[in-house]
Amino acid sequence: MRKIDGRVRVGRRTFLQGTAAAAAAGVTFSAKAAWAAEAKTLTPHQMATLALMARDIFPHDRLADVYYVRAVTPYDAKAGGDGAFHEMIAFGIERADQDAKSHFNAAYIDVPWEEQRVVVLQGMEQTPFFSKIRGDLVVSLYNQKEVWAKFGYEGSSAEHGGYIHRGFNDIDWLPSV
Amino acid sequence: MASFDLNDDSVVCIVGSGAGGGTLGNELAQKGIKVVILEAGGRHEIQDFINDEWGSFAQLAWKDMRTTSGTWRVAHDFPNLPAWIVKSVGGSTVHWAGASLRFRDYEFKARSTYGALPGTSLLDWPITLAEMEPYYAKAEFKMGTTGTNDIPRLPGNNNFKVLEAGAKKVGYKEVHTGNMSINSQPRDGRGACQQIGFCFQGCKSGGKWSTLYTEIPKGEATGNLEVRPNSMAVKIEHNDAGLVTGVVYLDGQGKLQRQKARVVAVAGNSLESPRLLLNSASAKFPDGLANSSGQVGRNYMRHMTGSVYAIFEKPVHMYRGTTMAGIVRDESINDPKRGFVGGYELETLSLGLPFTAAFLNPGAWGRSFTSAMDDYANMAGMWIVGEDMPRETNRVTLDPVVKDANGMPVASVHFDDHENDTAMRNHAYKQGAAIYDAVGAVRTFPTPPYPSTHNMGTNRMSEKPRDGVVNKFGQTHDIKNLFISDGSQFTTGAACNPTLTIVALAIRQADNMAGMMSRTEI
Fold it and tell me: How many Cβ atoms from other residues are within 10 Å of residue B478's Cβ?
């Protein structure tokens, strides 16, 4: 079968935006991280918590932190232009921190185990905050073209002539019938 | 290309340009009848299509507000997206998968065959398979359906090969790449399938039949057909005699226009068509047009659907190639010993990574979900299409509160599965998983129905006026120059993807409508 190169292709535009460099250097989910400090409306703590929540909701060990950061970064601008949304984010994170403190004696971002943070998220599953974050991530995480190859998805095919000469029927492990 | 005057009351005005409206428009134009098609969406041609699930959804899907209620899971997961259909010239033939199956004989006689099941509004069609056969043949020839007219079937892709191997191992006999209206070889000025995938996003090769680049340009070439994109019908008008006189629509500039007409044919899909009739209520017809039976909007069917996905140890790359060229037909029989009436088909289906994330298990999160996504490359998938039971309470109504940008009430869709639907789905989930298990699946997923792509029954065909909205020609029982030309005519849904039957009915309707016009009956 024709295999797929799962490495991330770094385009010039992406490189100039600095995210490729960030990926290489390792982005961290910390309020002290440079990317979190760039937020204009949300606090660095809120940004870092959102990114960690994104990973806890859709944990993929094959994805670097930068993809989760990218998925939640637009929330800063959205909060800037939408007071009700800003409030929902603020309340949601406050609630997560309170729940984390009562269960594990630490703010959400400082709870060490994913399993423990998931307990906090499960307690918030029915809130509009959680539904909004989870629902948005379905698109903001999985619709990043850079992650597709990591999952073995090849994206647009028409410009390559489709798969008629590129393995549409190349499966080679099935038992014969 | 023709351009008809708004006051030209000799035209047939068709609302919608999909399988029903687009086909009817061309058939009438070929007979020399002047036609204006009003299409709510824009005109996106082949070169405009994009191989990108969300990007294409934004370009083509009908995203106008709708509301939902009922126990179906779609109402919970996608409360404002009950249906995944198209708002663009060509309608849902732009994104349909191409599967073209004829109803079986008993499927036109659902009430007689299945009996009076409690909680259903089953009814026999007023037409038989024998009457439909010549029109099915015309539709298959028109659409270039594989496995008919000596057209070879499509080659099977990886996803089909998994289905085929598993199905044969569990003993299924009728397994092949289907009757697909997708060119397996060049035909009718269109090329052969390039195994691009993205059948749902508009076919970039034009190998798949769509009214957008077959019926519509052919009709336009006669000089008798005008298609007006960005024209959203808001009301059908009538005169004192109770005959329809034209359609009021909103044009691309947001201005109301009135196209006069000799005949009006409604083909806006099963949610918008009843909505238009209901929104056209008047002093003379206070319950909406053609609704003396009270049946407009009722008996909404969406097929008993669901999917089974499976993960294998090794790669499948299910998204490569034709999306739905693969079928197991053995369960498409009426065998009540299985615990339900009617039957179902199993058809290959794949989603790209973005839509798999959205639809594999809506609402899911955490490692159970992400570990499935991690194995996307090793995934195979099939779709279940079974006959669902018509119910009077499954219906499209006008939302009492929510209005669209033009101030017209939006469609509200209520749906509850009948226990027959649930029993059939559970059977199909089990059989689908068995197929994949037979070839080494390590994990299978009984995936819930997506927003409806097959919408049927909301202006159903009936012999007696009290039981439905239209007669055997799609002519409304109440108003002789008002017709319904889409899947909302379906009396019952059979286990078949509906497009072939919609096209066959449209060809037949064109013959009968032309006859009525030449005899000046309408």
Answer: 17
Position B375: which residue type? D
Please report how the helices A74-81 and A44-57 are oriented relative to each other, as an axis angle in degrees rounded to 10: 120
User: Per-residue pLDDT for B346 more than 90?
Assistant: yes
pLDDT of residue A1: 83
A&B contacts, CB < 8 Å: 130
Contact A60 B156 (CB under 8 A): no
Partners of residue A167 in chain B, C-beta under 8 Å: 158, 317, 320
- At residue A28, the pLDDT reads 81
Rounded to the nearest angstrom, the minimum Cα separation between A85 and chain B is 20
pTM of the model: 0.96
Three-state SS at B301 = strand
In 3-state terms chain B splits into helix, strand, coil percentages (rounded to 5) of 30, 20, 50
pLDDT at B406: 86
pLDDT at residue B401 is higher than 70: yes
Q: How far is B309 from chain A (nearest CA, A)?
A: 16
Of A3, A139, A157, the CB nearest to B196: A157
Distances (CA, A) of A47 to A42, A93, A110, B42, B290: 6, 10, 14, 40, 57
Please give the Cα distance from B38 to B236 (Å, whole number).
12
**Mean pLDDT for chain B?**
98
Name residues 22-51 of chain A within 8 A of B (Cβ): none
Q: Name chain B contacts of A162, Cβ cutoff 8 Å.
A: 193-197, 205, 321
Both tokens of residue B319? 């998204």
Tell me the β-bridge partners of B235: B248
pLDDT along chain A (177 residues), means of 10: 72 47 63 91 97 98 96 97 98 98 98 97 97 98 97 97 97 89
- pLDDT tens-digit map of B217-249: 999 999 999 999 999 999 999 999 999 999 999
Q: Distance (Å) from the C-alpha of residue B301 to the closest C-alpha of chain A?
A: 28
Nearest Cα of chain B lies from the Cα of A20 at a distance, in angstroms, of 22
CA distance B218 to B1: 11
Angle ∠(B13,B18,B19) on CA atoms, nearest 5: 110
Q: Which of A113, A142, A148 to mutate to test the interface with B (most CBs of B within 10 A)?
A: A142
Helix/strand/coil for B175: strand
